Amino acid sequence: MNSQKYQNVKPDPYVTFVEELMRILFLCSSHSLDDARVTRKQAVSLSKNGHEVTVCAEKRNEYEEKSVILVDIDKLHTNANKSIRKNENYRRLLRLCRIPVLYKYTKQTKPDLIVAHEFETAILAYVLRKLFNISYVFDSHECYNESIKEIVPIPFKALAEKIAVFCLKIIARNAEAVTVVSQAAEIFYKKLSPQTPVEVLHNSPILEYFPYIEEETSTLIIVHEGSLGYERGIMQILKALSLVSKKVDFKFLILGSISKDVKQTFYEEVDRLNLKSSIEAPGNLPWTEFGKVEATGQIGLICSQPIPNHMLSLSNKLYTYMACGLAVIGMKGSETEKILNHYHCGIVVDTTKPEEIAKAIVYLTEHPEERKRIARNGRKAIEEELGWHHMEEKVKVLYSEIAKKLKN
């Protein structure tokens, strides 16, 4: 690596400077420029250590990050993709249409290291390595061997999984490292490629934006963060809240969107169950304000249905609930259960059964001291082990080792 190209880089004076610097390019076909994990945390953390970091991704919001170069992938697109971008039903097709653009951009810029954030960008990174000897890290946000099965017809699921595992094995064996979101994913990739470093990066929040408020409102606030649809248990949650309403006065705070395919059914069910007055949906909030609103709650719901990808991954909301001091209700038999049990910060239930969800909510309401103890445990876990300030140190060490290896 040529040190002259870094002479204009100004590292954060408060962060230990790494020995070797790289030009790192984040390739994203589906994640956006303002994505909390991709840009706001990983890319910024790497730039703090002096690396020159570029993120090529979709621009969804007006977002700027002075320490990172942001490239709107769709401005590199031809007009042929405009019709696709307007139709949300063709998101997967749009992702594939972006691959040639990412290929061309990478070929032109010739970074020292690629960080690929999706299955298709990881395949692209492998191709670029073979063609141009550009090293890469695969940042796997989900269990792709499971998620790919969800989008193909039943007769082809087994074949799709075999193909996905085969591709993931090649990707992992040629990567400088693989970063994952859960212990289950760590085990999976270590089995695929024992020689490749695999690091768990918990998608935990930056604490300054997610406060812990011990004072509680007189009305119980139950929170659901993120997109809410059938797979996230929207119908089970509404039925559970209907049962809870017979015993507890509450507000259900939806911090995110309701999936388009379920929106009409959702509001019809809300009216039928007489829950309209109990629901608050402020919509999408600025990232810097999001945590302040979430911290007003007392209980956080993770009621995803038992789809393998959901059970084997860890959702962002788990960590923000913990940071904000919410007692968590999560899925039995999942990676979420392991976190909740290990840190004693929540209750696990069969999320296919509204009665169990309701029972857990009522229990936490009727036992406020137990709920507060659970909430404190969650916050403590984020502060002492899982917070991004700890993950940032992992990122620093991992990429420093990669930089040294590439130099040699």
Account of the 3D structure:
Helix content is 45%, strand content 15%. Mean pLDDT is 90; it is low at 1-18. The N and C termini lie close together (9 Å). The strands form 2 sheets. It has a 7-stranded parallel β-sheet with strand order 3-2-1-4-5-6-7, sandwiched between helices. The protein is built from 16 helices and 13 strands. Helix 1 (38-48) packs across helix 16 (388-407) and helix 12 (316-323) crosses helix 15. It has helices at 38-48, 82-86, 91-109, 119-132, 144-147, 157-174, 183-192, 234-244, 263-272, 287-294, 308-312, 316-323, 335-343, 354-366, 368-386, 388-407; strands at residues 23-32, 52-58, 69-72, 113-116, 135-139, 177-180, 198-200, 220-225, 250-255, 279-280, 299-301, 327-331, 346-349. The chain is globular and about 65 Å long. It folds into 2 domains: 3-202 and 387-407, 3-Layer(aba) Sandwich (Rossmann fold), CATH 3.40.50; 207-385, Rossmann fold. The longest helix has 20 residues, at 388-407. The protein is of the alpha/beta class.
List the helices and strands and how they pair.
Layout: E1 23-32, H1 38-48, E2 52-58, E3 69-72, H2 82-86, H3 91-109, E4 113-116, H4 119-132, E5 135-139, H5 144-147, H6 157-174, E6 177-180, H7 183-192, E7 198-200, E8 220-225, H8 234-244, E9 250-255, H9 263-272, E10 279-280, H10 287-294, E11 299-301, H11 308-312, H12 316-323, E12 327-331, H13 335-343, E13 346-349, H14 354-366, H15 368-386, H16 388-407
